[in-house]
Amino acid sequence: MSAQTLEVQTDAQNTANKSAGHIIVDTLVAHGVERTYVIPGESYLEVLDGLHQSPIETIVCRHEGGAAYMAEADGKMHQRPGIAMVTRGPGAANAHVGLHTAWQDSTPMVLFVGLIPFAHRDREAFQEFDIKGWFDTGAKRVMVLDHPERASEIVAEAMFAAMSGRPGPVVVGLPEDIIREMVDPALHPVIPVATGGMTVTDWKQLKAALEESTKPLFVLGGNDWTQEGTTALTSWLEEHHLPAAVEWRCEGTIPFSSPSYVGPIGYGRPKPTYDLLEETDLLVFVGTVPGDVITDGFLVRQDWTKKNFLVTIDPSLRGRSGPVSHQIVSKPDVFVRDLVMMDLADKPEWKSFTDRMRGEQEKFAVLPSATPTDGQARMDTMMANLVAGLPHDAMITLGAGEHTNWAHRYFPTEVYAAMISARNGSMGYSVPSAIAASLNFPGRRVVTIAGDGEFLMNGQELATAAQYGATPLVIVMDNQEYGTIRTHQERHYPDRVSGTQLKNPDFALMAQAFGGFGVRVEKDSDVPAALQAALEAIDEKGQFALIHLIVEQRVKAY
């Protein structure tokens, strides 16, 4: 063979091959990924280059924590993982907060981390770290791409692992030199995820338990639902006059207005739903388990003579507390598919029980007066004016803090994924999650309520909102303190305030500097006009809007 012929063949082969970094992007496209949230790094430039002309939208964020939160929120809104990409060492460390949120909230998420070159490993190279040592205990799997020809396979495995069983986060390490290697561009097929379902035995035992029960209660939670599944379950519950409560920060799994919805169960819950756990003679958990938040620190519903059915795809029942009468290994939608074919004879006791608890929920959710007072700005006035004008499909996102109580109590979550929040109590989640929600659903009203302490943890992501046209309404409740911690402090160390007080900048000016609308509100009488101006900026100018609400210290929703 002549040298010229060999050169032609080599050129043809190079044209047919692709870099492992580009194949990673192609595989994400094949899995239906629409956007990725990134902080760029020289360690994974080949992947960024692959994104350059791909259909995946690349959202460049301002901090790895913000990018990871956005990806986690994205995973909550879809039946596929959210995707974040960061660089090695410090970048990976900053993204860890989003992984912990995904782990505790059972959210499918894949975090890609650029790594040092393979040849530099174990030599204390710049920004070197042990990716498995860091993430093994907080992720479902940690994989490193050491063989470029397996690039597509590793991505397919990561997507599968994030979605299979109880969903959660997966970490994929990408050595800088490995992802530049040229390999065969063939893509690995999408790996199907097992969904489980009711067996004949499951069906018979659940039907018998329901027929024997006079006060049954369904508890709905987790992120592994679809709108179709929640709609079908709601119709079945309403048809049989059966009640459903919702796990903390999962509101919208059953509509706020449904006659079967009897309230939230979690931190800050009203006393009637707290009492429900002991009063009911049958609990059916769907998509979640009775963990410490639901059971008030593993104290409520611990009697093993009680009857609890747990519907979860996780056979290990991770996070469970209290009795288990029967487990049904199934994802929520598949369970609902089987459940709605179960014809039950209605019982007057069911309707009486449901109507009583629904009445308690309706009293709890009655809006305060929308008429302003003469004094300082109040969250009650803000919520009353806000809720009155919300469309049916409005969404709320939340971080952590006492400011979230108003949303749990009053915000009308009518559709699935109407509430996107961090159930691990993670601060700084509000703004990034609102941006992700607005980018995913550009036609919907997206509201986030942030505390003043929480807002400054990721408020800089408003620059990301401005850059990509996200238009959330951000309400910052400023009481000049870390309010939740102050509450615990007053309980255990009364009159000894320490380490909880804050002095804040003008957040409205900050919003304006980032390119959005901002208004500072100190008087309650100014609340309605400020809200109207903020909504006009969103609807007419296509801006995000921020209301800086200055409230008194030590105020609670309930």
Short description:
The protein is α/β, with parallel strands linked by helices and about 550 residues long. Helix content is about 40%, strand content about 15%.
Structure description:
It is a single chain. By secondary structure, this protein is an alpha/beta fold. The protein has three domains: 19-183, Thiamin diphosphate (ThDP)-binding fold, Pyr/PP domains (Rossmann fold, 3-Layer(aba) Sandwich), CATH 3.40.50.970; 200-363, TPP-binding domain (Rossmann fold); 367-550, Thiamin diphosphate (ThDP)-binding fold, Pyr/PP domains (Rossmann fold). It contains 20 helices and 20 strands. It is globular and about 70 Å long. Keywords: Thiamine pyrophosphate. Residues 20-132 form the Thiamine pyrophosphate enzyme N-terminal TPP-binding domain.
